[in-house]
């Protein structure tokens, strides 16, 4: 007779979730990771696992990640009574693997299992992969890059740097308009076909090498951001890690801070509050904030504010918001700033401020800033973000008990989703249906309309 899994039962109790809620959360993480065999998990599966039945296949990893997100800390399989079920993921070696080898491996054999996992998301995001290397690693990164063996027949200079930056800008702008689902494969192919060749070339000087590595890091970062927006979170984490390695080898502190900010953003959204704060803290260290332009400082700072908020540090979060406002006010047209921060303007700051205040429980303040974000945004260039902002705003209004206002806002969000392929807009549509479910059969026209439109979005958005 199987022994009851008291460890798993205790962790589930700590989450405050019922077994049906655990099952639903497991299905969401399984869908994100492309583990289709777990999309039918029900309360009965959770009950069996607690009773002592061993989960099969990828279920243990999915269950661990689901519970880790809820608790905001990494869980080992042993902590949920499943030691030996599947091996724990070891990610520290990512920092020790040669960066060029990682780039080359991304494109080795179009049917390669690892490449398929990267593009389809069939890998489970793990908070353990967010552990950063120790200080000496960062100091030694540029030296490691300079000593890397190169192809003597491939010379790399400003033309190649400009080509990478132009391609990166194209995909970054496309992501803002249409979301990260469509186009990721094309950017991935450019990285493995062209950027990997450039990184392995002979540079005309150290400045050329650093410029190319920075440009490559930005391209890989955009691939990561598109994967994040597509809800392919382990793929995003791997891209972000590779981008951070390239930025470190370029000795580009502000770019490293920019990437760490994105990693913190992802960790917050996935419920890994402790890891998020560690990443956000790292984003301002080692001159990453000090050497950044005012606009980039504002971006790094406001995401750190949200990390502080989800960690319960209200006073520090408010202080960080005010500093971000000051930093953005110092940014001016014509500033010498990297093109990667072109999108971060008043609307973006208001959006992130609203999310920070929402995390602090200040719904009135969050709603005020969401309204400001919608008012300031150029919707023709930022369709995806506009839809996401309206989705969050409707959720805040629903949280205040104003379902009519929420439906009006969500109707605008659904309008903005037209032509957008994004995991985050899909999550917004899912939230609409979840929040409106208690009102579904009450004959309220606005509820019925939004619910049906959200259902249609969920059918077409992948």
Features of the shown structure:
462 residues, 4 domains, mainly alpha, two-stranded parallel sheet
Summarize this, please?
This protein is mainly α and 462 residues long. The protein has helices at 6-15, 19-33, 43-51, 59-71, 93-96, 99-106, 113-120, 135-146, 158-178, 184-199, 206-229, 233-249, 253-269, 273-282, 294-310, 314-330, 346-359, 363-376, 383-399, 403-416, 423-436, 445-460; strands at residues 155-156, 202-203.
How confident is the prediction overall: mean pLDDT?
Answer: 90
Element string (H = helix, E = strand): HHHHHHHHEHHEHHHHHHHHHHHH
Helical run tally: 22
Query: How do the strands of the widest beta sheet line up side by side?
Result: 1-2
State the total count of DSSP E strands: 2
Question: First CA to last CA: what distance?
Answer: 42 Å
Radius of gyration: 22 Å
Q: Helix- and strand-based class?
A: mainly alpha
Q: Outline the low-pLDDT stretches.
A: 87-92, 109-114
Biggest sheet architecture: 2 strands, parallel
Report the portion of residues in β strands: under 5%
Shape: globular
**Domain count:** 4
Helicity level, as a percent range?
55-70%
């Amino acid at each position: 007779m199987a022994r009851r899994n008291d460890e798993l039962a205790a962790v589930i109790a700590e989450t405050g979730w019922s077994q049906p809620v655990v099952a639903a959360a497991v299905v969401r993480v399984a869908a994100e990771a492309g583990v289709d065999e777990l999309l039918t998990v029900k309360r009965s599966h959770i009950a069996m696992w607690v009773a002592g039945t061993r989960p099969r296949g990828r279920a243990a990893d999915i269950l661990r990640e689901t519970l880790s997100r809820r608790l905001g800390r990494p869980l080992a399989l042993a902590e949920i009574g499943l030691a030996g079920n599947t091996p724990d993921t070891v990610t520290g070696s990512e920092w020790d693997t040669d960066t060029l080898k990682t780039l080359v491996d991304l494109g080795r054999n179009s049917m390669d299992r690892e490449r398929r996992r990267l593009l389809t998301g069939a890998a489970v995001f793990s908070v353990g992969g967010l552990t950063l290397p120790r200080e000496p690693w960062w100091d030694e990164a540029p030296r490691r890059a300079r000593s890397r063996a190169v192809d003597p027949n491939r010379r790399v200079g400003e033309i190649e740097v400009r080509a990478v930056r132009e391609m990166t800008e194209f995909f970054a702008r496309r992501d803002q308009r249409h979301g990260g689902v469509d186009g990721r494969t094309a950017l991935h192919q450019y990285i493995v076909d062209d950027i990997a060749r450039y990184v392995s070339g002979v540079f005309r000087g150290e400045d050329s090498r650093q410029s190319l590595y920075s440009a490559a890091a930005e391209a890989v970062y955009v691939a990561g951001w598109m994967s994040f927006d597509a809800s392919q979170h382990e793929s995003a984490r791997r891209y972000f890690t590779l981008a951070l390695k390239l930025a470190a080898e370029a000795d580009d502190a502000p770019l490293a801070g920019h990437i760490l900010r994105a990693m913190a953003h992802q960790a917050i959204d996935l419920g890994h509050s402790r890891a998020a704060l560690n990443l956000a803290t790292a984003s301002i260290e080692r001159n990453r904030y000090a050497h950044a332009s005012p606009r980039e400082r504002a971006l790094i700072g406001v995401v750190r504010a949200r990390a502080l908020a989800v960690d319960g540090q209200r006073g520090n979060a408010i202080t960080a918001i005010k500093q971000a406002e000051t930093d953005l006010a110092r940014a001016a047209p014509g500033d010498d700033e990297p093109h990667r921060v072109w999108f971060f303007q008043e609307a973006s700051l208001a959006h992130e401020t609203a999310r920070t205040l929402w995390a602090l429980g200040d719904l009135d303040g969050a709603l005020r800033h969401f309204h400001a974000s919608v008012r300031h945004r150029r919707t023709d260039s930022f369709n995806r973000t506009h839809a996401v902002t309206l989705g969050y705003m409707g959720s805040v209004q629903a949280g205040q008990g104003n379902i009519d206002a929420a439906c009006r806002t969500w109707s605008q969000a659904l309008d903005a989703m037209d032509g957008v392929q994004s995991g985050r807009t899909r999550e917004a549509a899912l939230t609409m249906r979840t929040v409106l479910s208690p009102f579904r059969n009450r004959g309220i026209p606005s509820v019925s309309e939004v619910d049906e439109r959200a259902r249609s979005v969920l059918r077409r958005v992948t």
